[in-house]
Structure formats: structure tokens, C-alpha cells
Amino acid sequence: MASVDHHVHLYPDAVNRDPVGWAAAAGEAHWARLCTRRRRDGRPVQEFPDLETLLRDLDAAGIDRAILLGWYWEHSASCAAQNRFYAECVRRHPDRLSAYATFHPASPPAEVEAELRRARGEGLGGVGELSPQSVGAALDTPAMQAALGLAASWGWPVNIHVTDPNGRAYPGKIETPFADVERLALSHPQVDFVFAHWAGAFDVRPLPNVRVDTAAAPLLYGSAAWALRGTTVRPDQVLFGSDYPLCLQAGQSAGAGLACFAAEARRHGLPGV
Ligand SMILES: [Zn+2]
Prior knowledge:
CATH superfamily of the domain at 71-243: Metal-dependent hydrolases
Largest sheet: 5 strands, parallel
CATH class of the domain at 71-243: Alpha Beta
Strand order of the largest sheet: 4-5-6-7-8
Distance between the termini: 8 Å
Bound molecules: zinc ion
Helix content: 25-40%
CATH topology of the domain at 71-243: TIM Barrel
Number of helices: 10
């Protein structure tokens, strides 16, 4: 079985060169708050690797393939730019990379449909990571309905960011009430959802069309996350995801943290990593 990381973020050189300046110019304040801050020890919360660095870090972690996830940008121009960048990544390394498209949930639905059709033509194969609440939108906007209709007809997975209300606080944390995401899954039974971050530790066992990924778990739960398997999540629902290039372990690079986390997942018997 190939080893897959289902939750990776990557950015174009223009973002990597100056993340703070890029975010200010693009009006992406929420992303900047989450991704360009430093921890109390002065180290950045995440790195900004280029594509070749990602591939080297995957190799070092023994991971065959990464699924590149978009971001819940505040502007549809940022969404489109990320989709184009991911199309180029997938074109260059189809053997190592898959990528999901993103969109703004308050955009006109026809615009979103056109963007997703374009992304599909360029080789993308899913939707996410979405967090409508983070951009002040509802989960059932016309654009969301349109995107989920396409995802269902194309067999595209849809990755949704889910926050644990009982988890630790961090700057930029947004509540994602479980009743809302649960309703989304129940009202779109034909869509294959992935609820990120262990679905915020909510009980997703009764939801047949929902899986979870393990993204950022070392920071959110430590190794206690593995006890969620069989408790709030059926074992067959769990996908390995890291949230690379988030630095997952104190004092370690993003790549070293990824390798440690993948090894931990294997020790706990998670298949597919
Ligand atoms: Zn997330």
C-alpha cells in the first residue's frame, strides 16, 4: 500500500519569499495570523518550503504521495492563484502529488463552478481545505451547494477544517460547531468528506460518508490522539495527514516533524502511511 500524506499545504515562491508582505498585499490577514506567527520560543509555527524541499521531506519521511490542500482564503483571487500553482505542481510531479482546489464560499456559484471545472481540467482532484466559518460564510451558501454537487458527480473528496472546542487556544482559532459540519455531511450523503484534525474529536462514527485526517495532531493532542481511534472515529475512517509545513514537534524543522509523526502513525498501526 502506498504511503500517503492527505494534508499538506504548499505555497508559490511569491508567498514563500515574503509571507507577511504577501498577505498584507493580498488582504489575507487571517492566514497571516495563523501561518506567519512565532511560538513563545521565538520559532516560526511553520516553514515555507518550495516544491523540491517538500519532495525531499516526503522521501525522508518514507511517504510516497502528498495531497496538496488549498486554503480558506478570504479572496477568490487568492483561491484561483493557489489552484493554478497546484496545477503546476501536479503537472511537474504527477507520480508524487495530488491536489485539491479551493474557492470562496460566498462567491457567485457560477464563478465557483467555472473555477472548479478549470481546476479539474488542470489535474486537480478534490476540494479543500475549506473553512467557511473562518471567512464569515455559512456552510450552505449557493457556492457550497454548487461545489458539493460537482464533487458528488466527479467523486471528488471534500476536506473540511474542523476545530475542537475543548482544544487549546491559539491565535486565529475559529469555532466550527459540530452540528453544522454534521448537517453538511448528512445533507450530502453522496459526497465523500474528510473532516480534518480528527474531526475536532467529535464523534463521527455514525457518519458513513465521513473520514478524518490526523493533521496537526502532535500539536493539538500529542500521542493521546491515537486513543480517538475506536472511540470517536471508526478505525477505517482514519487517514494520515500531517499539516506540513507546520512544525509539528517543538524544536524541530517541518521535515523532521513530519518524519517523526509518520513513524508514530506506523507504530500505532495506521494503514496507508
Ligand atoms: Zn485545518
